[in-house]
Design a protein that fits this description.
With 460 residues, the chain is α/β, with parallel strands linked by helices. It is 42% helix and 15% strand. Strands 4-10-9-8-7-5-6 form a 7-stranded mixed β-sheet, with helices on both faces. It has a 4-stranded mixed β-sheet with strand order 1-2-3-13. The structure holds pyridoxal-5'-phosphate. The site of pyridoxal-5'-phosphate (PLP) has 15 residues, from helix 6.
């Protein structure tokens, strides 16, 4: 189909993030115009269920009047001031206090960023900085995981364990290593129990630490549930075993809760839902329900003490963004947290998740679906060429992308991560809307199956 005038203007002017720059010139983009509740509407007036909350972020859905008014009022009152060199403002102070109160582990200070990538980049710098302050400059390596996602800035993209973020970007940088991925369906061995698998994952981490030298390994970073890697939920023994290894070798544990924070797994934070206690935490996305770009790292006392040591030595703590703690972003984040508390959004998300997960698991019976997996209010289905052997489709057939396109025709936005299709609706979704979402997804899968059968893509 020929591109509309707006689509042509779009591809001629905007370099789209995370987009195949060759094919988008032919397919054009889906141009959205408005949103209300869990729905968004495109420029032609077609409505969609936003089944991904945008990019795992719009937890309160669209068109929230209270958040819009909060931004407007703060813009009128004090549109900008910063936190550099002895300045501060009330929204940042209150937000930091609130986050400390909610944190699942003891937190000394909150450092604000504008995104998840900046948060994880700051984590890397803080680890290096802290270990210099502690007089152990050789303890700098950071271990992440294959298929982990931590963002796209230079250090964050290095932490990310996905080939597309490294190839020809000359990444990862040195000193960042990737250990094995706890996806039992794909990487579990024949006859291996989930517990044995978890032990093997922990052993892989320990072997890597010993190979590199424990005195050179500073930190381990992990998402509670891996998001962009395909919504990979580790077995229940995984994190306790991993934490035992981190603690044994004095490896600082960073929990990247950019997706899993603020109710996605049915609790305020993802780490307690997965049974571990990190040393520091990265947050973003649902912190403002994506009404403003705000991220943060929440750091422990010993990391904070390092900034005092270094400030005395260097004369300042030389890190910070213009928009660290932007007052409009901070005010909106505070209001978002107030709404989560007042409306019991997180408790309600926990109560809604059995219905969501039951729908998801039911899709596991579909002939195209190899695995349906999830936790809380996030999940994915992995489409496969052969259910029995778990044989994947040839990536060139782009079956996941095709299913997502067909879902779009059904009025549902979901996201393909290879052949895993992610579902992460706004937490305000009602039970009826959840039924509707899965009806649409189920129809899309049937149509994808018809197409894949016609194209002779199925079979062992
Ligand atoms: C777990 C995780 N960490 C970090 C990021 C990067 O956040 P941003 O895109 O805001 O830089 C993302 C983004 O999806 C994420 O899912």
């Amino acid at each position: 189909m020929a591109l509309t005038n707006l689509q042509v203007r779009d591809v001629e002017t905007v370099l789209h993030p995370y987009t195949n720059q060759a094919t988008v010139r032919e397919t054009g983009t889906l141009i959205l115009e408005s949103g209300k509740g869990i729905h968004v509407t495109d420029v032609d007036g077609k409505s969609y269920i936003e089944g991904m909350s945008g990019l795992w972020c719009a937890s309160l859905g669209y068109g929230n009047q209270e958040l819009a008014e909060t931004a407007y009022e703060q813009m009128k009152k004090l549109s900008f001031t910063h936190l550099f060199g002895g300045k501060s403002h009330d929204p940042a102070i209150e937000l930091a206090e609130k986050l400390k109160e909610k944190a699942p582990v003891p937190i000394s200070k909150v450092f604000f960023t504008s995104s998840g990538s900046e948060a994880n980049d700051s984590q890397v710098k803080m680890i290096w900085y802290m270990n210099n302050a502690l007089g152990r400059p050789q303890k700098k390596k950071i271990i992440s995981r294959i298929k982990g996602y931590h963002g796209v800035t230079v250090a964050s993209a290095s932490l990310t364990g996905l080939p597309a973020n490294h190839i020809d970007f000359d990444l990862p940088i040195s000193g960042i290593l990737h250990t094995s991925c706890p996806h039992y369906y794909r990487f579990g061995k024949d006859g291996e129990t989930e517990e044995e698998f978890s032990s093997r994952m922990a052993q892989d981490l320990e072997d890597m630490i010993l190979r590199e030298g424990p005195d050179t390994v500073a930190a381990f970073i992990a998402e509670p549930v891996m998001g962009a890697g395909g919504v990979l939920v580790p077995p229940k023994d995984y994190f306790p075993k991993i934490m035992a290894v981190c603690n044994k070798y004095d490896v600082f544990m960073i929990s990247d809760e950019v997706i899993c924070g603020f109710g996605r797994l049915g609790e305020w934070f993802g780490s307690p839902a997965l049974g571990y206690k990190p040393h520091s935490i990265s947050i973003a996305k649902a912190l403002t329900s994506a009404y403003m770009p705000v991220g943060a790292i929440m750091i422990p006392e010993d990391m904070y003490q390092a900034t005092i040591v270094e400030s005395k030595k260097v004369g300042t703590f030389g890190h910070g963004f213009t928009y660290s703690g932007h007052p409009v972003g901070a005010a909106v984040a505070l209001k978002t947290l107030e709404i989560y508390e007042r409306e019991k959004i997180i408790e309600k998300a926990a109560a809604k998740s059995p219905q969501f997960q039951a729908h998801l698991k039911a899709l596991g019976d579909h002939p195209l679906v190899g695995e349906a997996r999830g936790l809380g209010m996030v999940g994915a289905i992995e489409v496969v060429a052969d259910k029995k052997t778990k044989k994947a489709f040839d990536p060139k057939s782009a079956v996941g992308a095709r299913a997502v396109k067909i879902a779009e025709e059904e009025g549902l936005i979901v996201r393909a991560m290879g052949d895993s299709i992610g579902i992460c609706p706004p937490l305000i979704i009602t039970p009826e809307e959840t039924d509707d979402l899965f009806d649409r997804l189920s129809r899309a899968l049937d149509k994808t199956l018809d197409w894949a059968t016609k194209e002779k893509l199925l079979g062992a």
